[in-house]
Amino acid sequence: MVLAAVGQLCATACIKSNLIQCQTLVRKAALAGAKVLFLPEASDYIATSAEESFALANSSDCAHFISALKDDARQEGIHINVGIHEVASGHRLKNSLVWIDDKGTVTQNYQKIHLFDVEIKDGPILQESKNVEPGQKIISPFDTPIGRVGLAICFDLRFPEMSLALRRQGAEIITYPSAFTVPTGKAHWEPLLRARAIETQSYVIAAAQAGSHNETRRSYGHSMVVNPWGEIMAELGEDFTEPRFMTVDIDLDLVSKIRREMPLLRRTDVYPEV
């Protein structure tokens, strides 16, 4: 078994402050003996408008955010999985999830495929596709100190086709770093995470934003780790006062045991393979 850490924070439009939160979690996770730290979606910033978001993504602070975490990963000897913004074009951004190894090198970069366009009654109206470019491919699962990891982000959680594709390609752990809204979090966060774990017989790790980012945006929190049997191993709360983290042991023998004892033999002669 290998120890993994899952962080929870509340990003704002101040990248420097967000970096301090992330660096605090990196140091604490490394001190606890974790080999990997999972951080939420949009850990670099959460803006108040599309215009502010684009300006922040083009700023020197945003460039420094990722370079500083690369230095921290190397100095602390820990892998870091973190959600960031990247510039896609003159008017659009990428919602990205990068993997920084313990040498300080970005080895994987996944661009969010499913974008969050919703209008919830008595809740938020969010149109991510207005200023974010959707990704066009699933990144193949890759080897890490805790097992083979498949990358996904937040709204991807609602599409089992993606988690099944990652499982078919050998994923043992699937990540869903998120900034879930409070209404959708209360309704669907836990059941969706548990469903993805059960149907793929994989660990699901979901680092989440929590608390009020600004006057109009609040995230649900409840960072969670679910084992391949669908059991919640660890969970953080909703209220935010300071960056928090939890650690879990990842037992790949449990993954093998569940897949061996309950083989999911798909009838691809009857329905298409995902």
TrEMBL record:
Its main location: cytoplasm. SUPFAM superfamilies: Carbon-nitrogen hydrolase. GO terms for cellular component: cytoplasm. Keywords: Cytoplasm, Hydrolase. It is found in: Cytoplasm. GO terms for molecular function: hydrolase activity, acting on carbon-nitrogen (but not peptide) bonds, in linear amides. Residues 2-252 form the CN hydrolase domain. It comes from the Eukaryota. InterPro entries: C-N_Hydrolase, C-N_Hydrolase_sf, Nit1/2_C-N_Hydrolase. Belongs to the carbon-nitrogen hydrolase superfamily. NIT1/NIT2 family. PANTHER family: DEAMINATED GLUTATHIONE AMIDASE, NITRILASE-RELATED. This is CN hydrolase domain-containing protein. The lineage of its organism: Eukaryota, Fungi, Dikarya, Ascomycota, Pezizomycotina.
